[in-house]
Specification:
This protein is mostly beta strands. Helices cover 0% and strands 59% of the residues. The protein has strands at 11-12, 23-30, 34-42, 47-56, 59-66, 73-81, 84-92.
Length: 94
């Protein structure tokens, strides 16, 4: 069943599974439409991937991240939309 309820607040959820090898899912919620960026960074803060970089309508979204070409270690993912920013940590174990 699809949940068509508009989220009440901006939210970036913890990825699952975590730790992961090599694929994980990242869920986020938008109460209002806006231009969304979701980027992956390494432990040194270098951007390694852009997962989302586009206008999205309000709703809940799940994005898949494939880290098969990256080294094991800790990575961060950052959501930015309409002035909201949040960062979470994830671990890739090969």
């Amino acid at each position: 069943r699809t949940n068509s309820v508009i989220p009440f607040e901006y939210k970036l959820s913890q990825n699952y599974p975590n730790p992961f090898n090599p694929v994980t899912k990242i869920q986020y919620s938008l109460p209002k439409a806006g231009f969304v960026t979701l980027k992956i960074y390494d432990i040194l803060g270098r951007e390694v991937r852009t997962l989302v970089n586009e206008y999205k309508n309000a709703g809940r979204y799940i994005t898949e991240f494939d880290g098969s070409n990256l080294s094991s270690g800790i990575y961060f993912y950052k959501l930015e939309v309409n002035g909201f920013k949040d960062v979470k940590r994830m671990m890739l174990i090969k």
